[in-house]
């Protein structure tokens, strides 16, 4: 633009002996940079400025104001008192080039995010396979002594032993068989069948009620009519057990525990409410992450496993419905109802 201004000055001051080929060549070669030449704050000529702007004085002055904000003007002094200002802007190509680094950084960022997401997904898939393998191996290892215990119970039945004793042992063996079946289903696609959610939930709830201290006041509320849903009874039982045990741990073995079943048009909802220590709002989602625990002794797998059973296997939802520090927490499971 300095060359352009000098060419303009040469053209104005030219006489009959001046060679104008080079100045005219410089002036004519500017086909992209917008230029406004002013004198006494009036536009006297322009280059590469749209005609519709030059035709409207208001638009022309506004365009000149924009050029003034882009670059410092070049002063052309022809003679004392005769001064012109060259205001110019960036070419269209230069304006595009300004955004190329931003676009490049955005592409690099997206590419990095894609790599990170791929790495994280691969790592999680590997961890899931590891946990699934450990669960199946655990089920296999439990199965061997469990078979032996069943045999010993049959021997005890032939002896003169109080039948109530063998009956209680059989209940615990059945419980161990259920636990073994649970672990064997982790990592595989469970079979979902139509069941009454009220009966399946109540059976687990009553079993847990009989196994915990009387210092925990259990209560149960549910509709009288059956509510059917597609579930795996063994995994559903595990879900209820995890939530009940988690609630009792939060109450330190003493308090009130209420289980409510309600429904709307499309869903059945199970609420497990305790009077425990409560959960802060910033932990509503993190408590479902593997390894998260507030207990001194714990693996932090109960709620994460529960979330997986509800959301991945049963296509439902689980969340902290309400919690207040020092007053308790309510967890809610939402499952799709089976349309009858």
In short, what is this structure?
The protein is α+β, with helices and mostly antiparallel strands and 340 residues long. The chain has nine helices and eleven strands. It has helices spanning 2-12, 21-28, 51-54, 57-70, 92-158, 163-185, 197-211, 233-250, 302-313, and strands at residues 35-39, 42-47, 74-79, 82-88, 193-196, 216-221, 228-231, 255-263, 267-274, 317-324, 328-336.
Walkthrough of the structure:
With 340 residues, the protein is of the alpha+beta class. The chain has 9 helices and 11 strands. It has helices at residues 2-12, 21-28, 51-54, 57-70, 92-158, 163-185, 197-211, 233-250, 302-313; strands at 35-39, 42-47, 74-79, 82-88, 193-196, 216-221, 228-231, 255-263, 267-274, 317-324, 328-336. Strands 6-8-9-11-10 form a 5-stranded mixed β-sheet. Strands 2-1-4-3 form a 4-stranded antiparallel β-sheet. Strands 5-7 form a two-stranded antiparallel sheet. A hairpin with a 3-residue loop joins strand 8 and strand 9. Helix 7 (197-211) crosses helix 8. The chain is rod-shaped and about 135 Å long.
Strand order within the widest sheet? 6-8-9-11-10
* Residue runs with pLDDT of under 50 for 5 or more positions: none
Structural class: alpha+beta
> From the coordinates shown, what is the CATH architecture of the largest domain?
2-Layer Sandwich
Q: Averaging pLDDT over every residue, what do you get? A: 83
Q: CATH superfamily of the largest domain, please?
A: Histidine kinase-like ATPase, C-terminal domain
Indicate the percent of residues in helices.
40-55%
Q: Can you count the helices?
A: 9
- Strand-and-helix sequence, N→C? HHEEHHEEHHEHEEHEEHEE
Number of strands: 11
Q: What is the CA–CA distance across the termini?
A: 81 Å
Count of the separate structural domains = 3
The description of the largest β-sheet is: 5 strands, mixed
Tell me the name of the CATH class of the largest domain.
Alpha Beta
The CATH topology label of the largest domain is Heat Shock Protein 90
Q: What is the global morphology?
A: rod-shaped
């Amino acid at each position: 633009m300095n060359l352009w201004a000098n060419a303009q000055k040469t053209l104005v001051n030219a006489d009959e002996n001046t060679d104008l080929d080079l100045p005219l060549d410089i002036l004519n070669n500017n086909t992209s940079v917008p230029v406004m030449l002013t004198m006494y704050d009036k536009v006297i000529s322009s280059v590469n400025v749209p005609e519709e702007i030059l035709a409207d004085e208001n638009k022309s002055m506004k365009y000149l104001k924009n050029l003034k904000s882009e670059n410092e003007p070049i002063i052309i002094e022809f003679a004392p008192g005769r001064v012109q200002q060259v205001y110019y802007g960036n070419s269209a190509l230069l304006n595009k080039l300004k955004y190329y680094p931003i676009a490049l950084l955005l592409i690099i960022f997206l590419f990095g995010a894609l790599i990170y997401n791929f790495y994280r997904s691969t790592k999680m898939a590997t961890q899931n396979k590891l946990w699934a393998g450990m669960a199946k191996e655990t089920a296999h290892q439990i199965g061997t002594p469990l078979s032996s215990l069943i045999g010993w119970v049959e021997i005890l039945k032939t002896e003169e032993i109080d039948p109530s004793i063998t009956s209680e042992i059989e209940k615990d063996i059945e419980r161990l068989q259920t636990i073994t079946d649970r672990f064997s289903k982790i990592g595989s696609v469970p079979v979902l069948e139509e069941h009454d959610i009220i009966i399946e939930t109540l059976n687990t709830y009553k079993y847990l009620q009989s196994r915990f201290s009387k210092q925990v006041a259990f209560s149960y509320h549910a509709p009288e009519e059956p509510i059917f849903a597609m579930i795996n009874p063994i995994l559903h039982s595990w879900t209820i057990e995890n939530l009940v045990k988690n609630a009792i741990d939060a109450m330190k073995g003493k308090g009130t525990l209420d289980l409510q079943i309600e429904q709307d048009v499309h869903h059945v909802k199970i609420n497990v409410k305790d009077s425990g220590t409560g959960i802060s709002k910033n932990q509503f989602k993190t408590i479902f992450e593997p390894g998260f625990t507030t207990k001194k002794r714990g693996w932090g797998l109960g709620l994460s496993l529960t979330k997986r059973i509800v959301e991945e296997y049963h296509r439902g939802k689980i969340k902290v419905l309400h919690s207040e520090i020092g007053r308790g927490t309510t967890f809610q499971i939402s499952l799709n109802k089976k349309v009858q």
